[in-house]
Amino acid sequence: MFLHGIAADVLQERLDEVNRTFSDTAVITGHPEFWSRRFPNATVRPDDETLDLREGAHDLVVHAMSLHWANDPVGQLVQARRALRPDGLFLCVAFGGNTLSELRAAMAEAEVAVSGGLSPRVLPMGEVRDLGALLQRAGFALPVADTLTQTVTYESPLPLVRDLRGMGETNALAQRDRGPPKRALFAEAMRVYSSAFRSEDGRVRATFDLVFLTGWAPSDAQPKPLRPGSAKARLADALGTPELPAGDTTGPPKD
User: Fold this and answer.
1) Separation of alpha carbons 53 and 79, rounded Å
2) Where are the domains of the chain?
3) Which end of the chain has fewer surrounding CB within 10 Å, N or C?
4) Distance (Å, rounded) from C-alpha 86 to C-alpha 76?
5) How far apart (Å, rounded) are the C-alpha atoms in residues 168 and 51?
6) Segment 133-159, tens digit of pLDDT
């Protein structure tokens, strides 16, 4: 659960930077034991499709390491926003981007070699730009999305697989091949992984992208963008530079 620990540490750092005290926190997660320890005063709820949260009951909602498993991620975000009071804070962390790109490539190459075809073996991950757009679709104000990449090394791919099972990150895709996999498939995948993704120190690497999403429940007290053309000062004056007509790329004469 060390990746959950990293995610929780970063979330706490961001909360410390917010000049506000939160009194009614809700945490949505599929790992209640871990996150209850990190947020001992929070209401912890499972990441069900229908969240067990009352509307307007919380000033902070944390969606912890579960959004990448949601069948309807926008629905999860909308429900989280409704559970917030006006100007309440939403924080989310989930796997995304290039997470497990090495394992995905090794499994694909091995399956082609052994079976002559492909089936979904690793959960597809959302890109940070797409996940950030979900905040806007869900109606959050002041949305922000960013990524923290963690490169982990293992003695071999097998400890990585054990960590994934320990985190509950095994294959639950509806379109996965439900038949028993050929024994040769995983042996070949481990061989490809060890050959293609070995670091200089002899260990194999695994990439995890932690995507962090931040948004606020809309409120009249929040800052609003000004109407275009309402500025009372010229940018050129603030920068101390000449202003050129549109399309003029010649610039002022040089001394």
Assistant:
1) 8
2) 2-219
3) C
4) 18
5) 20
6) 899 999 999 999 999 999 999 998 888
